[in-house]
Amino acid sequence: MSASRRSGTTDELGPDEPEQPDRDGSDLLAALLDGMDAALCAFDADGVVTHWNREAERILGWTAAEAVGRRGFAGWAVRSEDAGEVQGRLMSSMRAPGRQVHEFALLTKDGGRVLVRTQSAAVRGPDGEPAGVYCAFSEVHAQIDLERSIALSEALLEDASWGVVLVDADLRPAVVNAHAARALGTRRASVLGRPLGELLSQGVEDVESTLTHVLAEGPPPAPAEIWVGVRSREGERRRCWRSGFLRLASPLAEEPVPLGVAWLFQDVTEAKQTEQEAALLRFRTNQLHRAARAAAECEDPLEAATVHLDFALAGFADHALIDRVVGTAPTDTERPEPVRLVRVAATPSGAPGPSRQPGVAGVPLRYGEGHPAVQCVERAGSVRTGAGAGPAERARAWALARQWPPDAVHALCAVLRSRGRTLGVVTFLRGAGRGPFERSDTAYAEDVAVRIAAALDLAGVPGERAESEERAESDERAERNERAERAKGGETAETGSHEQEQEQE
Description:
alpha+beta
């Protein structure tokens, strides 16, 4: 344990304290010194060691009994050639204002050398005159580690190029750096102490569950990508943050006591969107390739059209319809008034399954003039529409009024064009669980429409196809009759020639 002189020097180390028995004051001072994390020693005005705590004993190996009472460090804690300089620098703190910082090498009891950093200051007596010097020291590498930790914390909270949020045990931000405040769309002071639900409109549950897990179990093994919605003046912004989490524990407690969580994140929205778009493009390209191979094996062109429709539906929409223009497909100069469409194929609106062909009845659909499919045919271009925000009953009425499945919320109509003619329109429908169609979706739908239009053009109009088949059968029967008559006439002519030859004989 630490030792100190039972003289007035001990009293001088604690001026302005109420008078207490010398024994009690010494024991209290010894306990305080032994509980310090830093090594500490003290000298009187003559340079004699008066105090030596346990941390100093741990670093140098000299016990308090061996150190207290020695004059300076010469001959035991410092090399003889360095003793004068070290002693002079330490004792100069008696006349210097504030604390003095020095670095020098001390000797351990086993003969080794330790580079230490010291902070020394004067100890003044009751009259205000210097009565000695106290010196707190630690190993340089430990001090450098501490300074690095402090510098790292300050850099993270000020100049880091990624967001840093320190969250307390109640999952409320306690410290926020400038980058995180900008990402949250607010000022640093405005974030502190507020629930995360007031800062994020989406992804709050994911963030809070992760923070709770870190407090209880520790950090996850790898960064997590979390999609959040950030409120801003322009509206809600959807961002993807690649986040890392660290549990903060108090270094002063015997057992780890969680102080909170350090949440570090970086905005990777653009990279993530690019990655998703590339993956979506690969998937859709593969679907078009697979659909083309499957359609090539279909004998019926109309069946090939439905094959293209089924392959396009995967991951793209919930329902799809193919409507064909009634009669002969018009050219750009021949536009029927009004546009009439008949249903050629449709996906089942109940349970999932392949597209179905309703038959060849040819009954026109009851589409109004403002129907998106009619507009698509009239413009010969794609049309996007939706039910908009509102209650579910309103969206259901919107879909039923257009003769679509009741769960449809978003629609995309693409025109079917082949050989300069408008053959019809293909309609893709999405439910409330999917987002609205975008421009990239329109380009994909138009690619599918080109393939469906080629198959429909090959199939021909159902009425015309039946008439052509009847004409072909009639022509074939007439040709067979004509061949039979020619064959019969040839036999008659041959028989008459034979009889004539017999008469001549």
